[in-house]
Amino acid sequence: MSVYVLLLAAGASHRFGAPKHLQHWQGRPLLTHMTERAEAVAPGRVRVVLGAHATKLRPLLSAQQVLINAQWQQGMGSSLAFGVSQLPSQARGVIVLLADQVAVSLDDLRALMPTGTSIEPRIVCAEYEGVRGAPAYFSNHFFSELAALRGDQGAKALLTHPVARTVAMPSAAVDIDTVADFENFQQQREIASATAND
């Protein structure tokens, strides 16, 4: 029984004005950074849901990683439901990560992972700025509910389930919707790097 990572990258990037997952940071596309981070947590068990820009993004991924949601225009709930429905039956659980949550670190993802061999129902999600959200871990007990999501309905309702617990994760508040968001992210990283080197 293994944990998978579902990386959602199906959106059209309308506000960015171009496929944001192709935007280069430190010499490589953002999607490459995110996929490698996910692979470090779940080697060989990363699935990336593509949609609007599947033709352009697919070459960045291995064949095993690619899931294409033909109904991507229906919203994130549709992509999440489709992705979960494609996970193998032996999946113990899944971490759902948005492909534009570029500040989420390897340690952040590890904090969501189950420990030991517990088979109890389990939900662990990020909490930032008083909000519960992605990335989030769901044990396979909740796969049927996730696979039933429709349209733009995300998994927010499940994050208030009685078994759900939270992990403080300020980095999860950072997502890239616009070019200005990306520029701010770059500036913050440069400042952090300069401070660390002082």
What would the keywords be for this entry?
198 residues, alpha/beta, 9 strands, Nucleotide-diphossugar_trans, molybdenum cofactor cytidylyltransferase activity, nucleotidyltransferase, transferase, EC 2.7.7.76
Task: Explain what you see.
With 198 residues, the protein is an alpha/beta fold. The chain has a single domain, classed as Alpha-Beta Complex (Spore Coat Polysaccharide Biosynthesis Protein SpsA, Chain A), CATH 3.90.550. The protein is 29% helix and 24% strand. The strands form two sheets. The protein has a seven-stranded mixed sheet, with helices on both faces. A two-stranded antiparallel sheet has the order 2-3. The longest helix has 19 residues, at 179-197. It is globular. It holds the Pfam family NTP_transf_3. Residues 6-161 form the MobA-like NTP transferase domain.
